[in-house]
């Protein structure tokens, strides 16, 4: 096989046979097809054909055939590392679900996982069938076969409605992460191909949306035209489970002030809160307002469970708190309210930069020294980015450095 075999259609992740991937790992461990075949219940000719098919699907020779055994090539090592991670995700997610089989993940097929994940995403057999262009009967059969393999029910049915039970949610998370690893292997090996694009999926918290995220995305769009993005907006509580499930690969925004066992937090920059108001507010011209002056006006506060609310409460910890006329988490709504009233609020400078530049809003006084928050990237600890994802990391870091070195980018003075 040539160094890189071009194919008319690039392989889709669900076309890859899990048993062939297990055979790949067995060959790597034992150095020969003969020894590996019995471990994955395939004859030597069948495993030979399976590895040849994997090489066609990934587009590279995965092993060098030597007199002393089969040695993985550089590209083969990439596939092996990703496959080890993928199968570990499957094994971990199947562990403890039932006592029927010791290692149920060894009996799973890509057909079953494809149908199961489609059902998990769609919430009905009809929508799942449409999403992957197969019949409802085929989806029923594949999910039923997977439940037999696992030895327990994975979904609950009530009429046409379908939802995952606890076992189903656990297996769905592991399955998504496993599929993502295999997809990453395909991407890693197709960097020189003009026919493959890569999806960068991430969650954006409020602090990262105004500048860091769009700047990094724009840079990637210029340098990697085939790259595409799926961006979820929401609060930390809304995005952390999609991160753990593998629906997104990172969250960009305010980091948590404590370590999280299964997540890794990578800091980019510090953020200081400011008091924001409409440009016609009576305090707009006051350089250093007193606490009594700030207490004399009504405030917009963040929801009770938001970190921003905790900062506001600490700011007014001593003495009486001002009137809190409105509780709201939408920066768009807050910005409009400020322009029409004498309300005050706490926000990040980046969140009101455009309104300040346009003259609609203003910053009251100086940033609050006790309001430092770290902005950065949160990922799963087990996650390993592809080359394009690493480049996105670099662009986020560049945007953060630019933001630090040029505070006027936000339209405020820090």
Automatic annotation (TrEMBL):
<keyword id="KW-0805">Transcription regulation</keyword>
<dbReference type="InterPro" id="IPR000847">
    <property type="entry name" value="LysR_HTH_N"/>
</dbReference>
<keyword id="KW-0804">Transcription</keyword>
<feature type="domain" description="HTH lysR-type">
    <location>
        <begin position="16"/>
        <end position="73"/>
    </location>
</feature>
<dbReference type="GO" id="GO:0000976">
    <property type="term" value="F:transcription cis-regulatory region binding"/>
</dbReference>
<dbReference type="Pfam" id="PF03466">
    <property type="entry name" value="LysR_substrate"/>
</dbReference>
<dbReference type="InterPro" id="IPR036390">
    <property type="entry name" value="WH_DNA-bd_sf"/>
</dbReference>
<dbReference type="InterPro" id="IPR005119">
    <property type="entry name" value="LysR_subst-bd"/>
</dbReference>
<feature type="domain" description="HTH lysR-type">
    <location>
        <begin position="108"/>
        <end position="165"/>
    </location>
</feature>
<dbReference type="GO" id="GO:0003700">
    <property type="term" value="F:DNA-binding transcription factor activity"/>
</dbReference>
<keyword id="KW-0238">DNA-binding</keyword>
<dbReference type="InterPro" id="IPR036388">
    <property type="entry name" value="WH-like_DNA-bd_sf"/>
</dbReference>
<comment type="similarity">
    <text>Belongs to the LysR transcriptional regulatory family.</text>
</comment>
<dbReference type="Pfam" id="PF00126">
    <property type="entry name" value="HTH_1"/>
</dbReference>
<protein>
    <submittedName>
        <fullName>Transcriptional regulator</fullName>
    </submittedName>
</protein>
């Amino acid at each position: 096989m040539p160094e890189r075999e071009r194919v008319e259609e690039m392989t889709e992740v669900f076309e890859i046979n899990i048993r062939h991937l297990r055979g790949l790992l067995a060959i790597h461990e034992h150095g020969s097809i003969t020894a590996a075949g019995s471990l994955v219940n395939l004859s030597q000719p069948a495993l030979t054909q399976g590895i040849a098919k994997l090489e066609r699907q990934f587009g590279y020779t995965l092993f060098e055939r030597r007199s002393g055994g089969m040695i993985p090539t550089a590209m083969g090592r990439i596939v092996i590392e990703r496959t080890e991670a993928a199968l570990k995700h499957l094994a971990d997610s199947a562990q403890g679900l039932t006592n029927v089989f010791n290692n149920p993940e060894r009996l799973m097929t890509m057909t079953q996982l494809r149908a199961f994940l489609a059902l998990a995403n769609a919430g009905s057999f009809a929508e799942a069938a449409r999403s992957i262009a197969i019949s409802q009967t085929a989806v029923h059969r594949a999910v039923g076969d997977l439940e037999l393999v696992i030895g327990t029910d994975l979904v609950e049915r009530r009429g046409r409605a379908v939802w995952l039970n606890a076992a189903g949610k656990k297996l769905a998370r592991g399955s998504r992460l496993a599929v993502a690893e295999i997809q990453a292997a395909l991407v890693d090996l197709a960097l020189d191909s003009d026919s493959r694009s890569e999806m960068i999926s991430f969650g954006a918290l409020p602090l990262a949306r105004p500048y860091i995220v769009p700047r990094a995305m724009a840079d990637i769009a210029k340098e990697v035209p085939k790259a595409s993005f799926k961006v979820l907006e929401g609060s930390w509580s809304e995005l952390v489970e999609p991160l753990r499930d593998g629906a997104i690969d990172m969250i960009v925004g305010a980091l948590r002030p404590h370590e999280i066992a299964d997540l890794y937090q990578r800091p980019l920059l510090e953020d200081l809160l400011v008091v924001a108001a409409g440009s016609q507010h009576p305090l707009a011209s006051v350089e250093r307002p007193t606490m009594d002056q700030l207490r004399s006006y009504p405030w917009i506060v963040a929801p009770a469970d938001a970190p921003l609310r905790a900062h506001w409460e600490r700011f007014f910890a001593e003495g009486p708190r001002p009137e809190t006329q409105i509780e709201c988490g939408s920066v768009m709504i807050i910005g409009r309210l400020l322009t029409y009233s004498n309300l005050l609020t706490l926000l990040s400078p980046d969140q009101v930069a455009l309104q300040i530049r346009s003259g609609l809003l203003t910053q009251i006084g100086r940033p609050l020294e006790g309001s430092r928050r770290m902005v950065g990237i949160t990922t799963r600890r087990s996650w390993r980015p592809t080359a394009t994802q690493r480049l996105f990391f670099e662009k986020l870091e560049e945007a953060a450095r630019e933001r630090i070195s040029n505070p006027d980018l936000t339209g405020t003075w820090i």
